[in-house]
Amino acid sequence: LSDLVDSKLKLWIENAFCAQSMEKDHEYILESHGVVPVDYSCTGVVQNFMTWSDGLQQFLEMKHMFKLSDMTTITNYMSNVGLLQKYKNQIYGLSGTLGQQAEIETMRKIYEGIETCQIPSFKRRKLFEVQGVIMKDERRWIEKICEVVVEQSQFTTFAGKRAVLVVCETIKLANTIDQALKEKVKNKMLYINNNRDNSVIFAKKLGSGDVIIATNLAGRGTDLQISDSVKKAGGLFVVQTFLPKNARVEAQAFGRAARQGSPGSAQLIVCSSHLSKPLQLLILTSKLLSFIENILCSPCEKLFLLYLRHYQKSNALLNSQEISSLMKSILAENSNSDMMVVKEIRDSSVAEQLSSYVESDLPKIKKKEELFYQYLETLDLLYKSNNKPSESDVSALNEFWGMWLLTKLNMEQPITELDLGNAMQKLIQKESPFSNFHYYTAYGSELKEKKKLSESISMFTRAINQDPCWAAVAYYNRAFASLTSQNRNQDPECLSQALEDLQNALKSLDLYCEQLKVTHKHARQEVMELLSSYITRFDLHLQARATVLISLKSNIHQAIQKIERARRTGGFVKVDESLVYFLLPPEHILPMMLHTLASGIKSVESMGLSHIYVLDTLFSLAGFFSKIVFK
Question: Where is the Helicase C-terminal domain (predicted)?
C-alpha cells in the first residue's frame, strides 16, 4: 500500500485537522450507528447511507470514540450528468428551480440543445418579501429573529396571529433559536432531522401562532398546509436566518410561503459573523467607501458633529481608541444596500464556481466514467473467459481498479494508461494484480472448499512467502489443509509441519494484537482524562476485535495440544471445520454479544478466514507399534 500512502498522506493529515474543526449538529450528527453527514448547505438532509472519503469519516469516529468503519474505494462510477446524457434527446421535460442565468447557461453548456422556460404558477403568487437585514453579531441576530417571530405569531392592532417557519442553516443553530424562543412562543415544533418521526408537523394545518423551527429540510419540497385563520391574517411567514448558498436554495425556502394562491411573507435575517470571511471583508469595504463618499460630499459633517457633541459633553478631544470605536459604530449601522451587495457577491461567486465546474470538474467526471466502462468491459471478459470466475478473482480485479483510481488517475495522462489487460493476465496466471497477499489466501480457501487441497496449499504458501509477518490465516489454513490431505495417513513430517505452521500463526496473531493495543492507546490518548472511566463504542469495537483474535489463538493452542498428543502416541488427527462464527465461546453467541462482536468476526474474514477447525486425536494401532519399534 506504499503508493496509496504516498499519494494520500498529505490529504489524510489535512482531514485529521479538518475533523477537529468540524462541529456536531453542523456538518454531521451522531446516531446510534455512527457519525452521519448532514447536507446542511443545501437540503438539510441527514445522509444515512453516505460517508466521507479519504479518512475524514474515520477521524471523526476517533474524535467521538465511535466504532471505526472500514475505509473503502469507489469503483462503480456514474454521475448525474452522465446518466442524463445517456438519454440524449429522449428526455422531454424536467421541472425544478433553476436559479439565475448562470445556472441556466451552465445547463446549456452541459446538455447540448437544451431549452428552458419559465412556467407561470396556476394561481398568482401573493408573496410579500420584507426587506432583509444583516445583524452585526450573533446576540443581536437572535434577538431580531425572536422579535420578528413573536411579532408575527401574536395579535396586533392591525393583523391576527400568523404561522411562522424559521429556516436555520444547521441543527445546532436551530436548537439555539428554539431555546431563545422557549418562553416567548407556546406552539413551536422542531423539524431538523429526517431520522425522527416528523408526522405531527404535517398531520394538521398550521394554525394561528404555530411556529416551526427547521433546517433546509423544510425549505425544499415541503408543502405546509395553513388554516383559514392564518390565511386571513396574511399567511405563512418565512424567516430565512442565513444567506443561502445560491439564489435557487433561497427561492425554495421562500417558496414555502404564498403557495397555491394563498398570501404569505418572507424575510432574510443574516448574522454578519456567520458569513464567510471574504464576504465580511467586502461588506466592511463597501461601508467604508460609502462612509468616505459621505464625508467628501458633506465636508465631514457627520464626523464633525459627533466630535462636537462629545467635546460639549466632556470638554475633551477623542483619543485614538475612541476614534476607532466611533468608526466601528458608524460602520456597524445596517444599510439597505448591504443585503444587495452580499447577494451580488454570492451570485458572482456561484457563477465562477459553475464556470470552474464546466472547465475543470466536468472533464474529470467524464474521464472517470469512460474509465469505468473500460473496467466493465474487462470485467465482462473475465466472465466470458470463465463461466463462473472465482470470487477472489472478481474481488482482486475490483480492488486493482479502485486502487488505480486512487493512486494513478491523472488528467494529463491518456485514458489507455489504465492497464487492466496486465491485471487480467496476472489473474489468468493466478497472480495477484495488486501485490496483495490476501488474494492468495482467499483463493486458497476457495480451492480448499472445492477439495483441491494440493493447489490450495500452494496458494497459502505463496501468501506466506510474500509476507510471513502478517500471514496468520495463511499459516492456519495451510496447517489444516495439509492434515486434511493426508487424512488418516498423516506421517510425522506432516504433523511436524502443521505444528510449525500453527506456531507461526500464533506469532503473527501476536502482531495483530499488538497493533490493536497501539491503535487503542494513541486514539484514546487525547480523551483519556475525560473518559478514563467510560467505556466508549470505540473501546467496545477494539475489544471485540481483540476477543476474536484471542479466541482464534485459543483454537490454535487446542489444535497444537491435539497434534502433539498424536505425535506422542503414534496416532493421527481428525479435522472438523465449522463456520467462523463458531470461533466465539458459547457465552458470546447471545444476540446482543454477537452483534457487538460482528465487527471482530468481519476483521478476520477480511484476512481470509472463512472457517475454523477443530481437531480430534484418534488412536492408531499401527502407529503405536511403529512408535515402539522406532524407540
Answer: 141-303
